[in-house]
């Protein structure tokens, strides 16, 4: 049996909405994008949301809007995707890594505290796999040192911890609507903020820095525009928003299905020799983006190949960012610098995990993990 790593959630409703937009006069950013932004903000309990082309561009614009510049330092965890650090480099600032908690993989608040220097301007906590960092503690730390918080919630639209949702305690939060994410339009992103000033600035920067968006410029009579700052071009379009709106309306039922699959995996995999799971902090509503397991140390790649040979699509989220060639060369990072992240990154692999998984496929995934763990523990004994 083959179980692909990912299947999208696009169905009849999304297709009908895209066709409706295709038949309408506006295909770029227009009323459907605005509707998505309003509904996303309402869902999050945030003042404002802004649609962009990716997490990467949204987060880059947020850092720009916060005034991050060459010489500044931004604290990030090493257990994350490349773009969390790359956007800091794009502004000429320095990414400073702070290790993660050994059992959750989330930013360790004390490690972040120790990484603060007089040049630190911001912290980017990453809500990895869909579990949230301790935003209350991070907010207290940021306030104590006069730092900005920008949340990487590429994996976490639906999450909540200690009564706090993404975007509620930070300057801004960024989401990814990339192909495999819980909400997807192939590629896309969103920024949400309680600050109208930041949201307005990001909205302007995504349209070249222009004083008027395309909808305003082309509706009815021509109106001149001006520009007081050189911006970029990375706005969401109505075609993207058309794919996202029906998924947003179903977001809680899609999550409930993933939660049920996660419970099946947790129970089915429990007791497999040498296999562990990431812990979830208490008082957490997990957004359940990915389902990573921790393979026996030193055997992850062999585990992964054996799962693939049993027909499973698998992936690694992530290899530790500070050990990528660029970051080693640029900043001299080496193995041993961030031991918790390195250990988790050496062991982690992600299983197929999406609402359209069928019951027999879930059984096959569990069976394959159990068998592989048994095979590798037997190899270990001989
Ligand atoms: C933790 C994390 N941050 C940021 C990103 C970047 O998202 P995007 O591809 O929308 O730029 C990803 C993408 O997978 C991610 O996993």
Textual characterization of the structure:
This protein is globular. Strand 2, helix 4 (82-90) and strand 3 (94-97) form a beta-alpha-beta unit. It is 41% helix and 12% strand. It starts with 11 loop residues before the first helix and ends with a helix. Helix 2 (31-44) packs parallel to helix 9 (238-249), helix 3 (55-65) packs parallel to helix 4 and helix 3 crosses helix 7. The model has no long low-confidence stretch (mean pLDDT 96). With 382 residues, the protein is α/β, with parallel strands linked by helices. The protein has 14 helices and twelve strands. The strands form three sheets. The protein has a seven-stranded mixed beta sheet, with helices on both faces. The protein folds into two domains: 12-249, Aspartate Aminotransferase, domain 2 (3-Layer(aba) Sandwich), CATH 3.40.640; 251-381, Alpha-Beta Complex (Aspartate Aminotransferase, domain 1). It has helices at residues 12-22, 31-44, 55-65, 82-90, 109-115, 135-145, 196-205, 214-218, 238-249, 251-269, 300-309, 325-331, 339-347, 359-381; strands spanning 48-52, 73-76, 94-97, 120-123, 148-152, 160-161, 172-176, 189-193, 276-277, 284-285, 291-294, 348-351. Pyridoxal-5'-phosphate binds next to helix 3 and helix 4.
